[in-house]
Design brief:
- The protein has 363 residues and is α+β, with helices and mostly antiparallel strands.
- It contains eight helices and seven strands; from the N terminus they run αααααββααββββαβ.
- It has a five-stranded antiparallel sheet with strand order 6-5-4-3-7. Strands 1-2 form a two-stranded parallel ribbon.
- Strand 5 (332-336) and strand 6 (343-347) form a beta hairpin.
- It is rod-shaped, with a radius of gyration of 49 Å.
Length: 363
């Protein structure tokens, strides 16, 4: 990668690390889109990181090979220098011998010729000896120079590779830092999204409970009686007061709180004897909805013996055949059903079916 490319990459990566100011109260859709975009950025950065790591690995192999080539060139250079010294030493001995003989050896060699042909041959021999020495020396000098140049080129390539490796390592660190930053951003968006979903669910539950309470309140006791008592919520209330005491007046705030807690516990498991927070039985669930605390304040029998009401409101207790639940309006109840289903919302009629009559009580 050239210098310009690295500069552009650094600028892009730095820009994605800048966290844009978060607008107040982002919607769930906006949070999901931001989270998805951040996840896509991380995926792209991971691909770039994988590519950089691959390049670093290949470059490390190339640097290792280049280092071996430099070592071989150094060995070749040492060998060439040794040959040069040997050849140079041989020439010095030959010159020394000629000097000590007063150069007579050459003259004697020529003068000892027995014929003109012999003279020419011996003269050529003497000349060739000197030429050979010079030629071999020149060859070794050339070889030495060639090896020195090769070594210098290899060292330059080696240094360039090391500089490139440093650049790649810097890009790798930048990518890692960017990915870590984006992952933190994703985690934060996930928390915001979860909080927004919980808030939206709670708001919807409260609105539904309030609407149901308002609808029931508007009907009033007179219209409920004319419609046949509890028939509007199931048509099967026996009426009257099981304890012989009059039912307490309906408290809309308390009823709304019970309904809100009931909705909040949807999906919890059914476990016999459990009173929360992650599992309930039917009376443990009703106890939690009525008080907001995890503890038992009654059994299905004792809840069924409370004063009965003919105008059931959201937050009242639905009772039948050893089972209780919280009425949420519109003929619906939330209850800890069975081990297989846990805490669910269902219509009262479908829940009681063959379990006999049902009635409403108020705590």
């Amino acid at each position: 990668m050239n210098k310009f490319g690295r500069v552009v990459l650094s600028a892009v990566l730095t820009s994605v690390m800048i966290v844009a100011p978060v607008m107040a109260a982002p919607t769930i859709d906006e949070l999901e889109q931001e989270k998805k975009a951040a996840e896509n950025e991380v995926s792209s950065l991971q691909e770039q990181l994988t590519e950089i790591v691959g390049k670093i690995s290949q470059l490390e192999d190339d640097i290792s090979v280049k280092g071996e080539e430099i070592l071989q060139a150094e060995e070749d250079l040492a060998e060439a220098e040794e040959l040069e010294r040997t050849q140079y030493g041989d020439m010095k001995l030959r010159i020394q011998f000629m000097y000590e003989q007063g150069d007579g050896s050459v003259i004697e060699t020529i003068m000892s010729a027995e014929s003109f042909t012999d003279l020419v041959n011996k003269a050529e021999y003497v000349s060739s000896v000197h030429s050979y020495d010079r030629k071999k020396l020149d060859e070794y000098i050339a070889t030495k120079q060639q090896i020195e140049e090769l070594k210098a080129a290899l060292e330059e390539e080696h240094a360039s590779m090391q500089a490139m490796q440093a650049d790649f390592e810097a890009e790798k660190e930048l990518l890692n830092a960017t990915i870590e930053s984006k992952q933190s951003e994703i985690a934060d968006l996930g928390e915001q999204l979860q909080a927004a979903l919980i808030a939206a669910t709670k708001k919807k539950q409260e609105e539904e409970a309030a609407a149901a309470a308002a609808a029931q309140q508007s009907v009033g006791t007179a219209s409920t009686e004319s419609a046949g008592g509890g028939a509007s919520a199931g048509g099967n209330s026996s009426g009257g007061s099981g304890s012989g005491k009059p039912a307490p007046s309906y408290n809309g705030a308390a009823g709304g709180s019970s309904v809100s807690r009931a909705y909040g516990a949807l999906g919890a498991s059914y476990v016999s004897g459990a009173t929360g927070p992650n599992a309930f039985d039917c009376s443990g669930f009703v106890s939690y909805c009525l008080t907001g605390s995890y503890g038992r304040i009654g059994t299905s029998g004792s809840f069924g013996s409370l004063p009965r009401v003919d105008d059931p409101q959201p937050g009242d207790i639905v009772c039948y055949a050893g089972h209780v639940g919280i009425y949420v309006g519109g003929g619906q109840m939330i209850h800890a059903s069975t081990e297989g289903t846990g805490v669910i919302q269902s219509s009262i009629e479908s829940s009681v079916s063959s379990n006999g009559p049902y009635w409403f009580t108020r705590y």
